[in-house]
Design goal:
Order of helices and strands: EHEEEEEHEHEHEEEHHEHEHEEHH
Largest sheet: 5 strands, mixed
Helix content: 25-40%
CATH class of the largest domain: Alpha Beta
Keywords: Iron, Iron-sulfur, Metal-binding
CATH superfamily of the largest domain: Glutaredoxin
Protein name: Glutaredoxin-3
InterPro entries: Glutaredoxin, GRX_PICOT-like, Monothiol_GRX-rel, Thioredoxin-like_sf, Thioredoxin_domain
Strand content: 15-25%
Number of domains: 2
Radius of gyration: 21 Å
Structural class: alpha+beta
GO molecular function: iron-sulfur cluster binding; metal ion binding
Organism: Clonorchis sinensis (Chinese liver fluke)
């Protein structure tokens, strides 16, 4: 099933695909969150009072409606506000108490050892199917070490923008805070396989199978953004002169691009050299294709070829 792009919801609400998304403010006429309680989607139902779990002896008070908070008690979800946008599934999530739902909370969750994040929107029917499948996967014992998070792509728009999420459903898998796999659309078979690989990293077969898995990750990574730069450091803090120079060239062309700090992941750093047959960094990719390193980028910039190549 194709993903549904996130755009002007007032015009595209009834469509199942073909929308686009500008992560700014939500349409006030449309509920932005599908609250899951005991596995049931309660779309469009406003919460007019505090919600408390059954048998709430010794359970914390969910708090006032003025705060967007999340709760996970006995594997059930009790958001205290209709715009609560992050849901944690499974027993591992119960370690989280009351937190304000914002980019900071997601940043803390992102650093967990194994994490599966489902970016969704309540108006896209594909998202319901993916959420149901992830709920089943989260309940399986073999996935007990994985934390499953659902993020409303519109309510937490800053997170969606940071991770280049422009369609729903989008499922992103993280290991130690690093994205290792991304599935756009309701591809249930691929989602199930990716979660299995995340929970069993040491049982994927021989070295050849491990290499195949790495190549799949690298292929997804170089396509994470239409223009992708693998560099040492970050745009705000480049860690080598070559990376700084290529950043200056890209910024001079006012092009939108994403970066990956190869100093944070040795497996990616070494694997990409072999994958692309290019031994040095930085490396610039456009639409998943290697452009080259600093020297080639300089030559293309001087001739005007680079600006043309970056029109994606």
């Amino acid at each position: 099933m194709e993903p549904c792009a996130l755009e002007s919801k007032a015009m595209q609400r009834a469509a199942t695909s073909g929308c686009s998304f500008h992560p700014t403010t939500a349409d006030p006429r449309i509920p932005t969150t599908a609250m899951l309680v005991e596995g049931q989607a309660l779309r469009g139902r406003s919460v007019q009072r505090e919600r408390k779990p059954p048998n709430n002896k010794n359970k914390p008070d969910p708090g006032s409606l003025g705060e967007a908070s999340i709760w996970c008690i006995n594997s059930f979800l009790y958001p205290s506000h209709q715009h609560a946008s992050v849901f944690l599934h499974g027993s591992a999530a119960c370690s989280f108490g009351r937190r304000e739902v914002n980019a900071t909370l997601f940043s803390n969750v992102r650093d967990r050892l194994l994490l599966v994040v489902n970016f969704s929107a309540d108006w896209a029917p594909q998202c319901t199917h993916v959420a149901d499948v992830l709920k089943v996967l989260a309940s399986e014992q073999e996935n007990s070490m994985i934390e499953f998070v659902e993020v409303n792509a519109e309510s937490v728009a800053d997170v969606s923008k940071e991770l280049k999420v422009d369609s729903v459903p989008t499922v992103i898998l993280f290991k130690n805070g690093t994205e290792v796999h991304r599935i756009c659309g309701a591809n249930i078979a691929e989602i199930t396989k990716a979660v299995s690989n995340l929970s069993h990293p040491d049982t994927n077969g021989d070295v050849e199978s491990d290499l195949l898995d790495l190549n799949t990750r690298l292929r997804n990574l170089i396509r994470r953004s239409p223009v992708m730069l693998f560099m040492k450091g970050t745009p705000s803090q480049p860690r080598c002169g070559f990376s700084k120079q290529i950043l200056e060239i890209l910024n001079s062309l006012n092009v939108s691009f994403d970066t990956f700090d190869i100093l944070t992941n040795e497996e990616v750093r070494q694997g990409l050299k072999t994958f692309s047959n290019w031994p040095t960094y930085p490396q610039l990719y456009v639409k998943g294709e290697l452009i080259g390193g600093l020297d080639i980028v300089k030559e293309m910039a001087a001739s005007g070829e680079l600006e043309e190549a970056l029109k994606v």
